[in-house]
């Protein structure tokens, strides 16, 4: 067996051992949730000049901490590259991965992960210069395309061009930041990543208005938090943190009105906030676990708005990330 395979096997054993010991028990004993995050993607995971992190995924990590500790700050953000993120989760370096990561079959069946729901529906697209006068990605035949290696983005790029019998030149980079800088410097004709990322990165370019996002979405990119297989309690906890935030938005329970809503006689709100039944016990939590999430972090809509939506600099429309009752795809099972 090669050295690389031996190292991977050792990490898998360590990760499985962590799961068997009980991740929640380890987190409680440690006093902090170790959360793997993007090393610098606005809207999802990004530190400011004082080292304070913000983003959709960062708030999810804080929601997990709030559910466990009644304190959203009891989380350690560990920035990870696309290449390192899976190794960190497999080895037990992080308790969960919340890093704009696409849910795929091979990542569950081949790498030993479980995805705890979808907190952002995305899809891959292309950014090009307006002066090229392109109106469709199907006009990119023969183009050079900057792309981050080791990602589903790289695979989708190949599928798109091969599926349309088009030649292209991939220009690979280890990080998204390197790929964007190369595109901005003119080293390639187009840059490709998830559509949300295209709008985020375009704003950083030297002349943002000189670039346009082409209309095609060439893939499904369901992004969500992931955990190691082998620890059902931890998987359920992380999964239901996501569901509770979505359910709270649907029920109209926000960080601003949660104390008033706590007086509600509606059975579904009472169950959500822990006043009817003990739905925290099976998760290893107290009955008011969801109340704490909403109080300290907010519901899904609040988190989306301040990080990606109209309350942020990005102002990305909810679109398919709207609630199912408003024409979107966000839907969560009920707490009952």
Q: Could you characterize what this model shows?
A:
The chain has 336 residues and is an alpha/beta fold. Helix content is 38%, strand content 16%. It is built from 13 helices and 14 strands. It has helices at 3-21, 23-30, 56-69, 85-91, 105-109, 152-163, 176-184, 195-202, 232-250, 258-261, 267-273, 289-296, 300-307, and strands at residues 33-38, 46-47, 53-54, 75-80, 96-97, 113-115, 120-122, 124-129, 144-148, 169-173, 190-194, 211-213, 221-223, 226-228. The strands form five sheets. Strands 10-9-11-8-12 form a five-stranded mixed β-sheet, sandwiched between helices. A three-stranded parallel β-sheet has the order 4-1-5. A two-stranded antiparallel ribbon has the order 2-3. Strand 2 and strand 3 form a beta hairpin. Helix 3 crosses helix 9 (232-250). The radius of gyration is 21 Å and the shape is globular. The model is unreliable at 1-19 (pLDDT under 50).
In short:
Helices cover 38% and strands 16% of the residues. The protein is built from 13 helices and 14 strands.
Count every helix, treating DSSP H or I runs of 4 or more residues as helices: 13
**Percent helix among the residues?**
25-40%
Strand content: 15-25%
N-to-C CA distance: 49 Å
Assign an overall shape. globular
Gyration radius (Cα, Å) is: 21 Å
Give the spatial strand order of the biggest sheet. Answer: 10-9-11-8-12
Provide mean pLDDT, rounded.
93
* Number of extended strands: 14
Q: What does the main sheet amount to?
A: 5 strands, mixed
Low-confidence stretches: 1-19
Helix/sheet category: alpha/beta
Element-level helix/strand string: HHEEEHEHEHEEEEHEHEHEEEHHHHH
């Amino acid at each position: 067996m090669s050295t690389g395979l031996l190292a991977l096997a050792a990490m898998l054993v360590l990760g499985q051992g962590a799961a068997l010991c009980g991740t929640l028990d380890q987190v409680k004993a440690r006093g902090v949730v170790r959360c793997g995050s993007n090393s610098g993607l606005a809207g999802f995971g990004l530190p400011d000049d004082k080292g304070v992190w913000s983003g959709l995924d960062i708030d999810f990590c804080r929601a997990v901490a709030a559910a466990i500790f009644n304190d959203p700050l009891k989380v350690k953000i560990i920035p990870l590259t696309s290449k390192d993120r899976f190794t960190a989760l497999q080895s037990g370096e992080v308790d969960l991965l919340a890093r704009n990561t696409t849910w795929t079959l091979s990542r569950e069946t081949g790498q030993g992960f479980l995805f705890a729901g979808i907190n952002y529906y995305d899809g891959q697209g292309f950014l090009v210069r307006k002066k090229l006068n392109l109106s469709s990605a199907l006009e990119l035949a023969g183009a050079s395309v900057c792309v981050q290696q080791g990602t589903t983005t790289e695979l989708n790029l190949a599928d798109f061009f091969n599926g349309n019998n088009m030649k292209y030149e991939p220009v690979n980079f280890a990080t998204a930041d390197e790929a964007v800088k190369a595109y901005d410097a003119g080293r390639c004709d187009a840059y490709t990543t998830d559509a949300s990322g295209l709008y985020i990165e375009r704003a950083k370019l030297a002349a943002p208005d000189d670039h346009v996002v082409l209309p095609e979405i060439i893939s499904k990119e369901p992004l969500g938090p992931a955990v190691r297989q082998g620890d059902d309690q931890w998987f359920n906890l992380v999964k239901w943190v996501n569901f509770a935030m979505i359910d709270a938005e649907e029920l109209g329970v926000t960080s601003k009105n949660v104390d008033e809503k706590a007086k509600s006689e509606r059975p579904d709100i009472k169950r959500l906030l822990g006043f009817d039944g003990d739905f925290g016990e099976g998760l290893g939590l107290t009955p008011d676990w969801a109340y704490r999430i909403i109080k300290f972090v907010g519901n899904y809509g609040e988190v989306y708005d301040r990080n990606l939506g109209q309350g942020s600099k990005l102002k990305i429309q909810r679109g398919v990330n709207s609630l199912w009752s408003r024409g979107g795809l966000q839907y969560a099972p009920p707490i009952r």
